[in-house]
Specification:
Elements lengths: L10 H10 L6 H6 L2 E6 L2 E6 L14 H15 L8 E11 L10 E10 L3 E10 L4 E12 L9
Length: 154
């Protein structure tokens, strides 16, 4: 059949569909300007170009935006699971090394799964500029919920 699209079965396939423009990104990612650069096995890289809307009163990107970027990529790295599963961040720790400003230009958050079981994952993210300077480091503990067979849409 012409025009028939296969629905993604894993989070990785879903992220790749977003990257290719075949699926809509989450509303928050779209509003904040977060884009997908790369998706690999238990790894993801997302980008953000800082704009005036991201700045705090001191002219630096608000730490909450960096924490949100980190959370997006941390959860995106847990991409080996079925798309019907849900990932919830239960603990997020962000350490800021240097300020991000509009002059910094594009920043990238690289997330990697350190350990995963069927129900939990420990992940880390590094937020760097395009010259490789570290601006923030984050770790998270996430819970993975899988719907029962009766809850999966058919």
């Amino acid at each position: 059949m012409t025009g028939t699209r296969t629905q993604p079965s894993t989070v990785r396939e879903y992220l790749l569909a977003i990257q290719a423009g075949a699926a809509e990104p989450p509303t928050a990612a779209r509003l904040l300007g977060i884009s997908i650069v790369e998706v690999g096995d238990r790894r993801a890289v997302f980008a953000l170009v800082p704009g005036l809307e991201h700045l705090n009163g001191k002219g630096a990107v608000h730490g909450g935006f960096l924490a949100t970027l980190a959370d997006f990529v941390l959860v995106g790295a847990i991409n080996h699971i079925p798309v019907t599963s849900t990932v919830s961040t239960v603990a997020l720790n962000v350490t800021y090394q240097r300020a991000v400003t509009v002059a910094t230009g594009e920043i990238r958050a690289a997330g990697t799964v350190l350990h995963a079981t069927a129900r939990t994952a420990t992940v880390e993210a590094r937020i760097t500029d395009l010259d490789g300077r570290l601006h923030a480091h984050a770790t998270a503990t996430c819970v993975i919920s899988h719907p029962s067979i009766s809850q999966v849409p058919r």
